[in-house]
Specification:
- By secondary structure, the protein is mostly helical.
- The chain has one domain.
- It is built from twelve helices and two strands, in the order H-H-H-H-E-E-H-H-H-H-H-H-H-H.
- Strands 1-2 form a two-stranded antiparallel ribbon.
- A hairpin with a 3-residue loop joins strand 1 and strand 2.
- Helix 3 packs parallel to helix 7 and helix 6 runs antiparallel to helix 7.
- The radius of gyration is 19 Å and the shape is globular.
- The C terminus is likely disordered.
Length: 328
Amino acid sequence: MIRPLIAFAGSLLLGLVLYPAVISTLARLKAGQRVQSYGPASHLVKAGTPTMGGILFCAIPVAAWLVLDHGRAGFLAVFAIVAGAAIGVVDDIANIRGRGALGLLGRQKLVLQLLVGLLLGIGLDAASLTVEVIPGAGAVDLHWAIVPLAALAVVACSNAVNLTDGVDGLAGSCSVIALVTLWALAQHSGNAPVAIVSASLCGGVLAFLFYNWWPARVFMGDTGSLALGCALVALAAELRLLWLLPLLGAVFVAETLSVIINVTAITRFGRRVFRASPLHHHFEELGLREQRLVVCFAGAAAVAALLCVALALPSGVGAGLSAGIHHR
């Protein structure tokens, strides 16, 4: 399939060319990042750095889908990207304007994420993309059960990517690795819509990383991180690999668990397990520089991605319904 390669190259080039103008526009609009007071002291210098930079790498796959695919399966992934970005835009604007603590209230964001997940699940069911591989059971048609599963996955994954976005280049690097993996699996299975959207989003995020690497000239904001989390769910679901998503996003899972563990330890026992959370802040407190931290975390993400490929290929990723599946 040549179209995914075209999507990747075009998205990368477009992103590299347009990001300087996007950064200038965000700076002119005073869309500067507010920094949490409880974060590492070294992050205070990041205050005011243009945020919402994810808006460009979210728009690029939409254009790629319109030009190279415009099919229903690809639309579901594009919908997930746009819907996640829309929540992020609202949250980022609230952050920039100083409404609330640092954006939307947690319950507000949760309701919007659940809505996106439910709509994605309904779309998957309407497109007959409800088959998922379940370890020990093989490929099973989940029917309407795909709806609550998609909602749960969207909430978990979008928040996990959002928590990881706290160090220059970290969330972007781990997302590129996950997207390359999904692209490769889609290419292997002949799933053109997933391959095109994965490749295009990968190219856009890679272009963003050129400007987000330390010291960052722009942040993706919740606009980018929530969209990436939603996109990973949609793409994995269409490849029948939702069960592998926690492994593919192992770094995102570790970051989320570190927050849960630390908050639980503090509230119940009055003690910290980690010096700070999410996990990347813990290593920063231990003296690990941002660049090295990103390389180490990206290395862990790459190992997890290789394990995903090793587990996915024997499961018949992306293949049609087998004889053992209960048809609709």
